[in-house]
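User: Sequence in, structure out. Go.
Assistant: Echoing your sequence, followed by the structure tokens.
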Amino acid sequence: YALPIRLDPKVLSGTAAIFFAATNALKLVPYFALGQFDATNLIASAALMPLAPLSTIAGAWLVRRMRPEVFYPFTYATVAVVAVKLLWDGIVGLW
């Protein structure tokens, strides 16, 4: 929804980060209720946690240096790749 508005890349990235942080926070209670947090998931999360600040810094660095003429095609391409992967997983999951 936000990509066609062509916000400044920093504003779009910040908005997306806040949206996904809020969405993930809202998912915590149902995930706990469904028993999705077991030792395996929590160990994997703890192992990956040091990468979160590094990825955030790398993403912020990239967004600051990328011109909007490059940022938007790159973002659309990334969304397309993720969409194909999700479709593939869904189709394979049917069999």
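User: And one key feature?
Assistant: The two ends are 32 Å apart (CA to CA).
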